[in-house]
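WARN  no MSA supplied for this record, continuing single-sequence
INFO  ligand: coenzyme A
INFO  echoing inputs
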Amino acid sequence: MHRNSLTYKNYIISPVEDFSILAGFSCINPDDPDQDLNEFVRQDAEQHYLDKIAVTYILKDKRNPNIVLGFATLQNDAIIIDGKEQIPSIASYEYKTFPAIKIGRFGISIAYQRKNFGTLFLFMLKKLMLKANRTGCRFITVDARRIKKQKIDTRPFYRKNGFSDLPSRGKTSTYCPMYFDLKSIVDAHERGLLFTDSASEQ
Ligand SMILES: CC(C)(COP(=O)(O)OP(=O)(O)OC[C@H]1O[C@@H](n2cnc3c(N)ncnc32)[C@H](O)[C@@H]1OP(=O)(O)O)[C@@H](O)C(=O)NCCC(=O)NCCS
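INFO  complex generated
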């Protein structure tokens, strides 16, 4: 088992090394003019991995290991506190930047969307970040996809998963920066609210 893999119930997340498994992956409907996510995962994710820019993880059901349920591309990041940002939980530190990991790209296979796999994947990534990190990493960041013209807005999905807006980075017409505080999971764990079932982790 790869050091950066994590198993939860019947599901596993692990870094991709053989990118051919993603050749037919699609998380965007064919009639959507913005095919960036599909193109990235099929064409560019491997080069990002080889150039050490980003690592792509996939979510699979161990009972159906040939099906990729979703992918997430991760890279190092930092949240810069520049006056606009107010993150009360770290206010006691005088640092200007705080360590984070960015979900650069994220998608659930079309046939499996709105079945809680995105939520499961984020939950497992949060657990992985708390378990396997060799260095300090306090936040997860993401640029939530939002395309006003097409009435696409993934912020409600991230909000449901504990993410908040990150105003200092500024929105664009296609995304809104957000963050999740990993310490909130540790706190919830300490209060006994999480991880109470017999998750098997490797
Ligand atoms: C956005 C995405 C990752 C969510 O994954 P998912 O497995 O479909 O989401 P879940 O089933 O875990 O959703 C949980 C809740 O989040 C909200 N939600 C999920 N997808 C949403 C979306 N596209 N827009 C707004 N809210 C959404 C809903 O409230 C949902 O609960 P409900 O289905 O009971 O209403 C997935 O739909 C996807 O891959 N979309 C296309 C690519 C994309 O936009 N990626 C995000 C890039 S930042």
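The chain is about 20% helix and 30% strand.
INFO  checksum written, moving to next record
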